[in-house]
Amino acid sequence: VTAPNNGAADDVAVADVLDFLACRTPAAWFEQAPAHLDVLLIDHANCEKKAAGTALSLLYRYVDKPELLRTLSRLAREELRHFELVEAVLRAREIDYVHLSPSRYAGALRAGIRDREPWRLVDTLLVGAVVEARSCERFLGLAGVLPADLGRFYTRLLASEARHFRQYLGLAERYADGGSIAPALQRLLQKDAELVSTPDVELRFHSGPLPV
Ligand SMILES: [Fe+2]
Ligand SMILES: [Fe+2]
Question: How many CB atoms lie within 10 A of CB 114?
Answer without folding.
Answer: 13
